[in-house]
Amino acid sequence: MKKVIFSMAALATLTLASCGSKTDNTAADDATMTEEVVVSETIEAIPTTDAEGTSIMDKIKGAASKENVQKGIDYVKGLISQGKLSEAKGYLEQLKPYAEKVGMSNVVSTVETTLSKAESLGGDAKDKAEQAVSDAKDKVADAARNAVDDAKAKAGEAAENAKAKAAEAAENAKAKAAEALGGLGK
Q1: Which of 22, 43, 77, 98 gets the highest tally of CB atoms within 10 A of its CB?
Q2: Quick one: 56 exposed, middle or buried, by C-beta within 10 A (0-12, 13-18, 19+)?
Q3: pTM higher than 0.70, yes or no?
């Protein structure tokens, strides 16, 4: 799921870079976009905590630079990858004005697109996946219990059949023995 989201973000970033204004800064913009893609691919290893988010936002408010805004965007991407969509949306809203100041509004819009796609996939995908796993475990446990109950019932039937056949065989043997002994005594 994370790889899909980051792949979509990378593709959208490259698309925006190629569809942007055609000025002499195209090569510089392409280099910036390439750096953003590389950063987004390594986001899985970045843990996101409330303290970290507050610290990054404080740095951005203190000095709104491209580097600080990019750290904020990476933080939002980390929240998205962890399925914390509402937190990511709120943080991104706080980040927007600073991104516009440093000329990174196109990157923010790409992240917004990724966020909306993640939301359209059904909200917190992690919770849904965990619920699906839990449901599957329950079904397997029920099937195992049913199989054990069926096996016990069949074993009980087989034991009853074996007792009946053993009793019948004993009666047959007794009858044959009596018949054989009856013929000897005459």
Answers
A1: 77
A2: buried
A3: no
